[in-house]
Design a protein that fits this description.
By secondary structure, the chain is an alpha/beta fold. It folds into 2 domains: about 35 residues; about 190 residues, SGNH hydrolase (Rossmann fold), CATH 3.40.50.1110. It contains 12 helices and 5 strands. A 5-stranded parallel beta sheet has the order 2-1-3-4-5. The chain is globular.
Length: about 240
Amino acid sequence: MQKIILNISVALNLLLIVAAITFVVRKGGSDYVVSKFSAPKELPLPYNYYNFKNQYQSYQSNDSMIIFLGNSLTQYCEWHELLKRNDILNRGIGGERTDLLLARLDEVTTRNPSKIFLEIGINDIIHKVDEKTIIENYETIVYELTHKCKAKVYLYAIFPVNLDMRSENYPPIDTRKISTINSAIQSIAKEYSCEYLDLRPVLTDERGLLKAEFTYDGLHLNGEGYDVWAKFLEKYIQ
């Protein structure tokens, strides 16, 4: 009888070990284990972050401007030229994450803009920020924007990427996270009465990747990509 009990105990322990190993492998293997038992790393600041932040704070502007807020995808375009308008302020900073954007929202809200277009999130994913933190930061950003000014707020879905065109020197991008975060952004937009803007249908190919003709590195847009974005925006900035 004791031998039977011992065999059952060994079998159960083996099953638990197999289940634990399977769980760890599905979560990312050794990287997952290291992440759970090591101190969180401080994420780097984007190049010239404080320089751009200070410049934006020093600029004067009129009320009721349209503000484009986000990371390099927003910053790398001369929106007033592309859209042929003189009432647009570009407040993009290359490499920006949700945590950094939270720290500079007052410069945006105190300008009393009429509309704010928010594009943020991909750099959090690149830096492997966990989904819960990204979503919490994002919702806090939207709460601040909708409670500290009267602007109409538009929330972009995180843009698609093309992993086939990404250099090996670039960090990997978890596209599953993009889908998860976009679902959360859509829910946040509904909760805070914002408009959810999804450019994926006009930017992606049949595989769901950012079309090669719209990018030079699989992440950032080229001129043709920005033209598509501008056309998409026409009805929202009239």
